[in-house]
Amino acid sequence: MYFDGEVNTSQSGHLIVLSHGLMGGPNDLSYLCKQLETLGGELTMVLSSNCNEFVKTTNGVSYGGRSLADEIKSFISTHDKDAETKLKYISFVGN
């Protein structure tokens, strides 16, 4: 998919979840996080996951997936309170 520098979510909220790789941490994707927050506008939320950082990445895929799902649910319940910007889209970026 080609990215032209514009993020258009019209009237719907968009959550972008950033998840790092093995033995990584949320700082691995900090530059991308800042760029997405800048370009995404007020209807875009960016979650740079930290639930599976460093040695927790060796706990297995099932554990990591559950931890990430729990972190996403918690983030949404905390940040998606405005009825006009209800989340419609979710994207995942991993490295």
Description:
The protein has helices at residues 30-40, 61-79; strands at residues 13-19, 44-48, 87-94. With 95 residues, it is α/β, with parallel strands linked by helices. The chain has a three-stranded parallel β-sheet with strand order 2-1-3, with helices on both faces.
Overall, the morphology is globular
Query: Based on the structure, what is the oligomeric state of the protein chains?
Result: single chain
What is the helical fraction, as a range of percent?
25-40%
Q: Could you give the count of β-strands?
A: 3
- Class by helix and strand content? alpha/beta
Distance between the termini: 17 Å
Major beta sheet summary: 3 strands, parallel
Calculate the mean pLDDT score and round it.
78
Low-pLDDT runs: none
Question: What's the order of the H and E elements?
Answer: EHEHE
What fraction of the residues are assigned to beta strands by DSSP?
15-25%
In DSSP terms, counting alpha (H) and pi (I) runs of 4 or more, how many helices? 2
Radius of gyration: 14 Å
Which features does this protein show?
single chain; about 100 residues; alpha/beta; 3-stranded parallel sheet; 2 helices; about 20% strand; globular
